[in-house]
Fold:
Amino acid sequence: MSTTSIYKHPKIFKLENGKKLRNLEITYQTFGKLNAAKDNVIWACHALTANSDVLDWWKGLFGNNALFNPEEHFIICANIIGSNYGSSNPLSKNPVTGLPYYLSFPEFTIRDLAAAHHLLTKHLGINKIKVLIGGSLGGQQALEWSLAGTNEIENLILVATNAVHSPWGIAFNESQRLAISTDRTFYANQPDGGLKGLKAARSIALLSYRTYEAYAATQLESVNEKTTGYRAASYQNYQGEKLCKRFNAYSYWYLTKAMDSHNVGRGRKSVTDALNNVKSNTLVIGIENDVLFPLSEQKFLATHIKGAQLSSISSAYGHDGFLIETDRLTNIIGNFLKESPSEKIIKLNRTA
Structure:
């Protein structure tokens, strides 16, 4: 059973930067049923341009007959603030002006996204989450949420993510925003503003999501005579146009800024001290040839989160492997969840 709903927050939502968001709306989907003990909740946090339909974008890991299936679990995925898939975003109507926000939408952080998830759990009457999982920007949300201490999170699964967004990652995001800002229509306050810039931004992003090997395997020319019209060029154009049909430049602009804001050490003693305070049984999964979130970042997480287990895979898809290599993720995550907390403690003591 799948249900799509919208939670309308009755109060003003105060953001980390002190700004306020009125009439906050969060679109979310649930799959399956909450059991009587309310201990079968699987919460998935989505990445940059995804939506609340986790059974669609994480197919193979979520779905009927998958590891996380609605026959056994109560699965929840909430669309994040700023995204144009139903939650409050720059194209939403500003209650003060009666017009869309566009670039007057307040900036928000990863911590704000986590706070919004907590609001939704209160609305749903959920106190305990059996598994909280997210990849990339979704993993950043999951980590911040676990540190907030607002909900009991039994198992935390962080995939291809980090504790602090890197200068490298910020540089990629800024390059994408520069591409968007060169499109004059971005400042025209219209729903389709900045789409040419968004197309270029997506092309830049793809270079951080995939690898040299992936392009060599899928976009290599079969003939030697070409001097134009290359497959790789067509692919970049196609992917840019594809995103423009389902997303908008304003949401993309704000969400990349939110990703840049990710730093678990902000307002806390230090990054390492913050990670040391994670209470959940934690699994960290990295992709060995991930250009955007290199394995060193997952090793850092696993080193400083008490008792965390680290696993890694190699994928020709690079960072995008976290969405594609679902069979391997199923094996790693399934084995992790089969171990009871007591077995994990014994294993930890043996290696200490």
